[in-house]
Amino acid sequence: MPAVLWLVLALALCAGELLTLDLVLLMLGGAALAGAGAALLVDPVAVQALVAGLTAVLLLGLVRPVARRHLEVPGRLTGRARLTGRTALVVEPVTEHTGQVRLDGELWRARPWSGGFDVPAGSTVVVASVEGATLHVYPSELARPEELS
């Protein structure tokens, strides 16, 4: 019966990994699986827990760092850096108070990067910066933002 409980715990932890994608719960699920294997061989729960604990330490300390290195893509931009410099299509005219652009199939709220210009619908803009869920954009025919200042 303890082996079944260890297996249920292992499955729950692995299912939880699908929500976090951090490889921690997956390693703990592997440790619980080792605890299930120990439960098939020995009766004392303390020994099973010791096997699971040692396996967790080994998996988290040795396997997880290597796995994370293999999953990371060098040079891949994320967050704000991924959006800055990209071009978007103006869906709703961009003014100081309103505006929407389509970037990679998604609609984003947009405002002019620097005041004094409005961008009509149908124009192409470049993302200068990101503030929350708002893209600060400038018309693609203008110079880069550093040159506008």
Give structural notes.
There is one protein chain. This protein has helices at residues 2-20, 24-41, 45-71, 80-83, 145-148; strands spanning 87-92, 100-103, 106-112, 124-131, 134-139. The chain is of the alpha+beta class and 149 residues long. The protein has 2 domains: 2-71, no CATH class; 80-142, Beta Barrel (OB fold (Dihydrolipoamide Acetyltransferase, E2P)). A 5-stranded mixed β-barrel has the order 1-2-3-5-4. Helix 1 packs antiparallel against helix 2 and helix 2 packs antiparallel against helix 3.
Summarize the structure.
It is built from five helices and five strands; from the N terminus they run ααααβββββα. By secondary structure, it is of the alpha+beta class.
Strand and helix map with partners:
Layout: H1 2-20, H2 24-41, H3 45-71, H4 80-83, E1 87-92, E2 100-103, E3 106-112, E4 124-131, E5 134-139, H5 145-148
Parallel strand pairs: 3-5
Antiparallel strand pairs: 1-2, 1-4, 2-3, 4-5
Helix pairs in contact: 1-2, 2-3
